[in-house]
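hiii, so i know i said id send this last week but things got crazy w the move. better late than never?? heres the sequnce for the chain we talked about at the cafe, plus the structure i predicted for it. fair warning i was half asleep when i ran it
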Amino acid sequence: KAHTDINKIGQPYQSLQNAPVLRKDEKITIFRYHDGIREILDFVVPIEFGGVEIGSIHVGISLESLQKRVRKTLLFVVTLAALIIASVVAVSFYISTKFSKPIYNLVEGTEKIKDGNYNHTIDVSSNDEIGDLTVAFNNMTDGLRKKEIMQDAFGKYVTPEIVDMILQHPDESWLKGEIIDATVMFADIRGFTSFSEQRDPAEVVNVLNEYFTMATDVIFRYGGHVDKFIGDEIMSVFGAIIAEKNHPVKAVMTAVSLQKELQDINLKKKTEGDAAIRIGIGINTGELIAGNIGSNKRMEYTVIGDTVNLASRLTRLAGPDEIVISNSVYKMVSDFIIAEEVEPVTVKGKAEPVLTYKVKGVREGVGLV
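okay and structure toks below
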């Protein structure tokens, strides 16, 4: 009576009894057959009236159409899953980047600190624990930078070994003041007043800086440290901070090396038409007081006492290119140097005349550093 194919209207119904049964139970039977064009799933439900089966309802569904819907649904599910996964990955990447980048910056900063770059700082990008850690890192870097500046500044006056010892043991008693046995050397430029009066101040400063640089290198070479610069005079100490038994020898060898290097420099200055720099050196050894001395505004590590005063007085007795040492120094270095005894002289602060010696050189076989 009704059919999508008009040619079948009015024709006898063709039963599907010969079609293969895909599934069958009490309520429904499913056939699967091919109508010549496509495969069909035929769902058959019996119609009963008064307990008697009077017919059946057939619903045919194209298997291809069903598969298309399944594929479409599957594609939608896969696409949705891919979008969800991509979103999760993107969010995870964003979150991981947000947290990992500051950590990476901290690791990179640590490497730079390890390489000695104490000027490196990290931008604080958050107010959480990572931000607090970054602030702490920057504070640490600033502290290390200031420490390096102080270490470098102090290192201009003492040897690197002494700087390391001071930084490792900042509370040692030598900072607080103690009586030690050490040797003090003063080196003063002779005729410097007239030298500076004839030259431009900038030139005078350059000459002094060149001389002080050379002298400091020599002092460091023999393990001494520069106590202070007093105008054109250098005060250096041997055996302070780090105790040494042979500090008088090192002080005298420093003085001999200093005079020798100045002779070489003066030969060059002479060829260039410049005035020579000639110094007088005084050396004394004995007990003195060493420690941080000064006010609560400014302090410096230095040595004081009669030993220091006598060394300064001996410098006044030394003429250009001369090295004058006290008797106490001579007793400890006589095996290493050639010296000439000088007539005892009266110096300021001493009631009795002081026996001194002028160093003429080092003995054969004694080498200079």
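btw The radius of gyration is 50 Å. thought thatd interest u
miss u guys!!
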